[in-house]
Hints:
This protein is of the alpha+beta class. Helices cover 29% and strands 34% of the residues. Helix 1 packs across helix 2 (47-62). The protein starts with a strand and ends in a 12-residue tail after the last strand. It comes from Micromonospora tarensis.
Amino acid sequence: MFALPLTEDVELRPLDPWRAEEFLAHLDRAREHIQPWVSPSFVATDLASARAVLQRYADRWASDSGGIWGLWWRGTLVGGVMFVSFDVTRGVCEVGCWVEPAAQGRGLVAPAVRRIVDWAVRERGIQRVEWRTNADNTRSKALADRLGLRLDGTLRQVSPGPHGRIDLEVWSVLADEWPAAPRTVH
């Protein structure tokens, strides 16, 4: 009912708690692919934990501190975008994304990220949009660059990972830098 077409084959929809079964099925397809890059608390393993993840984001949306939307490609949930954090008072938010292997490399995520960032900057007055990623995640860094974000720096060994501590890169774009027209991909 509430879907925003991004392309002929892709829709952006709210990823509400009542979609927990569909979200879990998607995570089952995506788990190995996304596990190295996302918070362990995001990768639900059963229906209760899937519902809890979506409820956490629904609560953030209700409190104006975050949100989550799914990407449906040809009617199947294949990934999504989110505001990991959203603080209108400070004018800062953090955006994130994920996608399952079957949808990777199809240009599904960038239009969705552009849409939510554009809304945050133009409608909500966000002044700084952050993108935080494991320094080893080359696809995430390439997407941040394509979206016009700049690398601010690296937080060295900021958190534990499966093979030792990880470095986290912080990318950002400021409201007055947010592009009127997106960069072209070569």
